[in-house]
Amino acid sequence: MVIASEIQANNNNGKLQFSGEHAGMVFTGEFLEWHASIILPPEKHALITASFNVASAKTGDATYDETLPEEDWFYVEKYPKSTFVSDTIVQNGAGYQVRGTLELRGKRQKIAFVLEDKGDVLEANFIVDRLAFDIGRESDVSAEWVSKDIKMSLLIDKP
Where is the signal peptide (predicted)? Predict the structure, then answer.
């Protein structure tokens, strides 16, 4: 199905989740405040822009939720917002190959992912290297306790 208009997505009509491992145990969390504007091909000016309030990250575990905002992890006092802006979006069967720049903790990294069109929803899964963004670098630079690769999952209900 081709989407020919702009989609406004946020925590009311979608989920932005993250997961990894800590000391061999899986943890999951969600950003509770985020917003994305999505214009997909065949529109001439296809673009995805997104921002998320890093302080809104919650796991449901009090220890993690208290630690995430700290300077070594998300450092929300200095970097309260993170962003993603696409460089290219190419239609690829029932989805879209997306490339762009993720900014987190003042660091910018190129990422790529497939945004799948599953009829009623758009879905994407990709990996973020937390050490590339200096997340947890002071307390766990070797990723001995917390996995280096953090899985990000995005699910958006289509209008």
Answer: none
Q: What is the mean pLDDT of residues 98-127?
A: 96
Q: Alpha carbon of 43 to those of 2, 26, 74, 120, 155: distances in Å?
A: 10, 40, 35, 20, 21
The answer to whether residue 1 is domain-embedded is no
**Residue 107, number of CB atoms within 10 A of its CB:** 13
Does a structural domain hold residue 2?
Answer: no
Q: Which CATH number goes with the domain that contains 79?
A: 2.40.128.110
Total structural domains in the chain?
Answer: 1
33-70: pLDDT as tens digits: 999 999 999 888 999 999 999 999 999 999 999 999 99
